[in-house]
Specification:
The protein is of the alpha+beta class. It has one domain. It contains five helices and eight strands, in the order ββαβββαββαααβ. A four-stranded mixed sheet has the order 1-2-6-7, covered by helices on one side. A four-stranded antiparallel sheet has the order 5-4-3-8. The radius of gyration is 16 Å and the shape is globular. The two termini are 28 Å apart.
């Protein structure tokens, strides 16, 4: 079990590359999201740690995208490709009922964890259904690039098939 502590190094060294990235990190039950950004603005950190989060599900060509919108023009989208999972992992992942997602905000230049949010999406079964259709498919990475060239993150939010809103209560 990894320990995640704000103000400390993110415990998964393989993701501490110094580059900006948004990555879905699969878990047995669902996944975590790593947002690794350079020079995180004070406004971005505040929106991440205390703002309302809207999670949206967008799908195109058997590829689901999770869009996480923190408000104030601060949002990300993540695509899912489970065709890389081995059969055992895919079956476990698809049969799980977990819907919890930990979102980690990491300063890319230092690898320091700046914030953690935990959300649970009601559309987890829909996301898994879309992923299940990927079995045996190839070329998903190329399709993701095509979809990104055709749809902005705002477009994905506008055409989402499901949404969940989370308010931070202090």
């Amino acid at each position: 079990m990894d320990a995640y502590t704000v103000g400390q190094l993110f415990p998964h060294e393989e993701y501490c590359t110094g580059r900006e990235m948004n990555v879905a990190i699969p878990t047995e039950g669902f996944f975590h999201i790593l947002m690794s950004l350079k020079n995180i603005a004070r406004k971005e950190k505040k929106l991440f740690t205390t703002g309302t989060i809207t999670a949206s599900l967008f799908a195109q060509r058997d590829i689901p995208f999770l869009i996480v919108d923190f408000g104030g023009g601060f949002s990300i989208d993540i695509s899912f490709d489970i065709s890389r999972f081995d059969d055992k992992t895919r079956k476990l992942w698809l049969s799980s009922e977990t819907n919890a997602i930990a979102i980690f905000l990491v300063e890319a230049t230092t690898g320091i964890l700046e914030g953690i949010r935990l959300i649970g999406v009601g559309f987890a079964p829909q996301l898994r259904e879309i992923c299940a259709r990927q079995k045996g498919q190839t070329g998903i990475e190329q399709r993701v690039r095509l979809i990104h060239s055709a749809f902005t993150t705002r477009d994905m939010i506008r055409h989402a098939i499901a949404k969940t809103v989370f308010n931070q209560h202090s």
